[in-house]
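User: Hey, my collaborator sent me this sequence without any context and asked if I could get a structure. I don't really work with proteins. Can you help?
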Amino acid sequence: MKTVTDLQGNFLYNVADDNFIAPEGQIVVDFIPDEPLTPEQLKAQAVAEIKAKYEFHRANGWNAYQDFRAMIVLDIANGIITETQAFLIEKDLKLGYDRISQNGDWMTAHYELSQITVSYPFIQSYLDITLNYIANYIQNNYDN
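Assistant: No problem. I've predicted the 3D structure and written it out in structure-token form, which is a compact way to encode the shape of the chain:
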């Protein structure tokens, strides 16, 4: 059990996850015991933990999107795809990358991308890369 405080050391909430990463403006410290929480406080704590997890997933989604975009730019530079093909790849995969980079919704992105049919065959390998990356992320970063 850990405690999350603001940058001035004021208690905010406790978390059960010892590997919890606090959102910006908060820090994780050793557990500070307090009086038993009321049902309303327990609910607020659970909501705060969920929000923090989604912020963590959103930040990682933004980084994943940047990595993917860099891969596309390198593929253009190396003559593997054209700029037009890059736009088509982005069009087909945009929904998934928007989900992870804007909202942290990795599971939703995986589900939605697994339902699409690519517009052109050359996009399939990029879709496969994306689906594998997202599946690995979910496996390594989600509790269940």
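In plain terms: The longest strand covers residues 2-6. You can pass these tokens on to your collaborator as they are.
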